[in-house]
Amino acid sequence: MERMEAVYHEKAVEKGSLVISACGFDWIPAEIGLMFNSRQWVSPTAPNRVEAYLSLESDKNITEEEVEKLKVEIQRLGSKQDDGSYKVTFGLLFHDDRYANIFEALVGTLRAAKRRKLLTYDGELLLQGVHDNVEIVLKPTPTPTTAV
C-alpha cells in the first residue's frame, strides 16, 4: 500500500485527489452508514459523531525466514560499521526494487526483527517519506565461542 501511495501521490495532487490506503472494507460501510443516517435524520436528533470498532488478527506471523532475508538485504544495501553492524536508511530499503519483490510487509518484518533484538531504529512504526532518513542498524552477529 505504501508503495502505491508513493507511486501515485504526484498524479493525485495534480488532479486534486488523495491516495488513501485505509479505504477498505472496514471504512466504506461506516462512511456510507454515516452519510445515509445524517441525511435521514433532522436536527437536533441528527448524529454528528459515529464510533466504530474493528479488531483484526493475522494468522500469518513473520517467520524466521523473512527476518533472515531482511538481514541479508540490509547487509547488501547497508554500510558495514567498525563494530560489525550494518547501517541502512529506511528510504533506501523501502525504495529498493529487489527488496520490494521479496517482501510485502517491510514495516512488519522490521518490527519483528526489532522485537527479536536483531536490529534497532528510532520509533515504532516507520512510514515512507516521513521516515526515509531513519537509520536502521543491524546488530553484529555474535561470534560463537569455542570451549577449550
TrEMBL record:
It holds the Pfam family Costars. Residues 60-139 form the Costars domain. The keyword Transcription regulation does not apply. Signal peptide: none annotated. GO terms for biological process: regulation of actin filament-based process. Residues 53-80 form a coiled coil. Keywords: Coiled coil. Belongs to the costars family. This is Costars domain-containing protein. It comes from Lactuca saligna.
